[in-house]
Design a protein that fits this description.
This protein has helices spanning about 1-50, 65-70, 145, 175-200; strands spanning about 55, 80-85, 95-100, 110-115, 120-130, 160, 170. By secondary structure, it is α+β, with helices and mostly antiparallel strands. The protein has two domains: about 1-50; about 55-204. The strands form two sheets. Strands 1-2-3-4-5 form a five-stranded antiparallel sheet, sandwiched between helices.
Length: about 200
Amino acid sequence: MNKIIKNTLILTAITVVSGLFLGVVYDITKEPIAIAQENTKQEAFKSVLPDAASFDDYEDFAADRAAEILEENGYEADEITEVAVGKDESGGTAGYVINVTSHEGYAGDIQISVGIAADGTVKGIEMLSISETAGLGMKADEEDFKDQFKDKNVERFYYTKTKESGDNMIDAISGATITTNAVTNAVDSALVYFQNELGGEANE
């Protein structure tokens, strides 16, 4: 009986010490981890809005308002998850970075970061998370596909299977129409949010 009590006390002491140790390690590492995560996010933002020197959270962002805007425009399958304001060297607004989650992917959600200049020009897109079919839908993460959206000032994008020309036309990925549709709609969702909440004709 005494042996059982002794072993229990030893295990309890080990658990308490381990817990305290983990707490100390967490306190030491949480700030460097947070800084590293913020730096990674800033780099991602910079890649889609290169004219910006720094980025701040858009303080007026409201998820319910964003959802309302998307629903009103027929993009219920998408979700605006984060909005950042890109500032130029003088502190003026260079544009916005809008993160969108599409629930229309073939293999699951696709998370996309869209950079939109103050005049409504899409400056770039990046995949934050995508797990589509290798050799098919995953081609959406290749530069040849993403660059189709770059430096285009249009109201909406549409995908084509017949190589139709025009700044607003996106060549569909062969064998991956669902992925193409999901990405195109996600970028359009960012444009719709920009036009109705951040700038564009709706707010002029």
